[in-house]
Amino acid sequence: MTEPAAPFPLGERSLRPGTRTELELPIAKTVTGAPLALPVLVLHGRTAGPVMWVNAAIHGDEVNGVEIIRRVSSQIDVRTLRGTVIAVPVVNVPGFVNGDRYLPDRRDLNRSFPGSPRGSLASRIAHIFMTEIVARCTVGIDLHSGSGHRTNLAQVRGDLDNPVVRTLADAFATPVMMHASTRDGSLRQAGNEAGAAVVMFEGGEAWRFDEDSIRIGTAGVLRVLETMDMIESLDDHLVAPRPVVCRSSRWVRARRSGVAQLSVTTGDHVQKNQELGSIHDAFGNRQSRITAPVGGIVVGLNLDPIVNQGDAMIHVAEPEDIS
Ligand SMILES: [Zn+2]
Question: For 131, which DSSP code?
Answer without folding.
Answer: I
